[in-house]
Write a structure and sequence with these properties.
Elements: H1 2-10, E1 15-16, E2 21-29, E3 43-52, H2 54-62
Length: 82
């Protein structure tokens, strides 16, 4: 699934997963003054963004959060003569 997702995103597609949400690419680029100066070399960064759909948004809004228990720390037993 990851390879197919990457392939579609690289071709400029948004990938929709129904009510779960969708993935798309965002770009950061240098600014140019004229449209004729726009070309791939001005792209500085490409990122994949996931936008949650209605199902995830609803679940997160209704989620109950609580503090997790602190992990037990193993305290080393002092060795005799140390």
């Amino acid at each position: 699934m990851g390879e197919e997702l990457a392939s579609l995103l690289a071709k400029g597609h948004s990938v929709h997963l129904g009510e779960l949400g969708y993935f798309h690419v965002t770009l950061k680029s240098k600014g140019v003054l004229e449209e004729k100066d726009v070309n791939p070399s001005i792209i500085e960064e490409a990122k994949v963004r996931f936008v949650a759909g209605s199902v995830l948004e609803k679940e997160i809004k209704n989620a109950k959060f609580e503090k997790a228990a602190e992990p037990k720390k193993d305290t080393p037993t002092p060795k005799p003569g140390a």
